[in-house]
Design goal:
- It contains 6 helices and no strands.
- It is mostly helical.
- Helix 2 packs across helix 5.
- The longest helix has 11 residues.
- It is elongated.
- The N terminus is likely disordered.
């Protein structure tokens, strides 16, 4: 068990990753932020804090309903929306091919 009460996956696995379910990732990102997507997150909330909030409340909406972050509720919902993959977004078609390790390695270049 990690300090958050979640099952650990090993000594190098960050504790917050064991506590956040895939469906909770957008809520986690909204709270923690994501520099690669320029999402600042909630001030003072890092990965462990975001995981603790998700574990305690179950979702961003539940945390907001409990009175957490009242001044930035709409902003956090926007961050969650930005962090959510659009399942209806068109994907480019890929040519049919059989991948090989040789082509994927530097030796195949």
């Amino acid at each position: 068990m990690c300090s958050l009460g979640c099952a650990s996956r090993g000594p190098t696995w960050p504790a917050f990753r064991s506590c956040v379910e895939p469906k909770q990732v957008p809520d986690f990102i909204a709270l923690r932020g994501d520099p690669s997507d320029k999402i600042p997150g909630a001030p003072g909330v890092g990965a462990t804090g975001a995981a603790s909030l998700i574990e305690r409340y179950g979702s961003l909406d539940a945390a907001l309903a409990a009175g957490r972050f009242p001044a930035m509720a709409d902003t956090l919902r926007l961050y969650r929306s930005i962090a959510t993959m659009d399942k209806k977004a068109p994907l480019p078609s890929l040519r049919a091919q059989k991948p090989t390790w040789h082509k994927a390695s530097c030796a195949g270049a």
